[in-house]
Amino acid sequence: MSITQYKINELCDVGSSKRIFKADYQASGIPFFRAKEISEKHKGIKEVSDPLFISEEKFKEISSKLGSPKDGDLLLTSIGALLGEPYIVDNDGDFYFKDGNLTWFRNFTKLDSSFLYYWLLSPKGRGELERCKIGSAQPAFTIEKLRQMVIELPPIEIQTSIVKRLKNYDNLIENNNRRIAILEDMSQSLYREWFVNFRYPGHADASLNDALNESKGTQKLIDSPLGKIPEGWQVKTAAEAITINPKTKLVKDGEKPFVGMSGLSQGSMVIGDIIEKAGNSGAKFINGDTLFARITPCLQNGKTGYVLFLTAEQPVGFGSTEFIVLRQSDDLSSEFIYLLSRSHNFREHAIQSMTGATGRQRVHVDCFASYYLPVPPKELMNEFTKIVKPMFKSIFNLSRRNENLKKQRDMLLPKLISGQLELKD
After folding, report:
1. Cβ–Cβ < 8 Å for 196, 421
2. Which CATH number fits domain 4-153: 3.30.70.240, 3.90.220.20, 3.40.30.10, 3.30.565.10?
3. How many CA atoms lie within 13 A of 217 on its CB side?
4. Which of 123, 158, 165, 168 would disulfide-bridge 154, Cβ 3.0–4.6 Å?
5. Is the peptide bond before 51 cis (omega within 30 degrees of 0)?
6. In the CATH hierarchy, which fold is given to the domain comprising 234-375?
């Protein structure tokens, strides 16, 4: 196989966008993406969590003069914690993006943009990106350095065959992501049915009146500060029913796994971006803990994670001081607490307690002393946990399988290019 070495700017145009100012943002119109939105799309999230827009008139003005992203173009996150995540534009419709946040690769010759996508994820591509990085507190890529990246390229027909092979891995990852989403929806639905609507096994629909409940021999509803709740349940504050920011004893000295705010997902319990050995400072957590973002805009965006990746050798992890650790208690299981933390009422109560400078407000931990919830009997909590715990375990196993698939995919590219592995249809 013939391999030719090129600089990226010999194969495509590398640039950014026309500057859009905050005053140009609209409540609706043409989507306007920053690094955060492209990072979400890179991770397979179809609907971005915090959309911005510009007017259609502004978009047409810019697009007619400078163009706009088209199917097959590649965008690369180019600043901050989300640095180096590529995304191939694919049926996204009209949109524009923030200069400085993203680098735009387009007008490809001799280079399949999907091949470039996989190359940027491979060890060789990551090494080239590392050489393009400037800054430490706020790392970024410069366009000029990205243009000078060196890539070893097989003929276009070989690139197409390699891309086809690697996409098989992406299809497996996408299937696993769909299964994860289904399991998360199932657990959320079960939580709402049992503990919000009070429709749990052996008990009457909460919409029935007390007299009808009694006539059927089922548990009746009683008055409480929260309204009607099943008899035998208690009303407690979150501070009473949840262990919040607990003290955690270190079993072993040395470096521990670290989770930053970027590791928490906006729509899933799965925690990513785990740094395996990153010191020993920050909030401590163990398996079963919920990591709940306490700063804006992370809390509004739904950033929350459930810890299930620690091992017997590393039973304690560290994380950002900008999330709150929620741990199970005698009243509530860890799975219940995670699902509660995803509920609208719980999050809104925390958001209402935020104070501080605009754009960097924080939740006050004492707000949990004024959030009341119905606490079910221990037997019912145990029954619920018995059902959802296997769901949580399956989600973790699927996410771990995805990480292994990604590593295999990213290590495969250089072997296919070098001929170590034979390409077969």
Report:
1. no
2. 3.90.220.20
3. 1
4. 158
5. no
6. Adenine-n6-DNA-methyltransferase TaqI; Chain A, domain 2 (3.90.220)
Q: Work out the mean pLDDT of the chain and round it to a whole number.
A: 89
Residue 269, pLDDT above cutoff 60: yes
Hey, CA dihedral for 306, 310, 316, 319, is it positive or negative? Answer: negative
Asked whether the beta carbons of 266 and 256 are under 8 A apart, the reply is no
Strand partners, 134: 140
What single letter denotes the amino acid at residue 412? L
pLDDT of residue 275: 85
Tell me if 49 sits within 8 A of 61, measured CB to CB: no
**Dihedrals φ, ψ of 80, to 5°?**
75, -160
User: Which residue, among 107, 113, 116, 114, has the nearest Cα to 149 in the 3D structure?
Assistant: 116
By CB atoms closer than 10 A (0-12, 13-18, 19+), residue 353 is middle
Give the integer Cα–Cα distance in Å for 139 and 137: 6
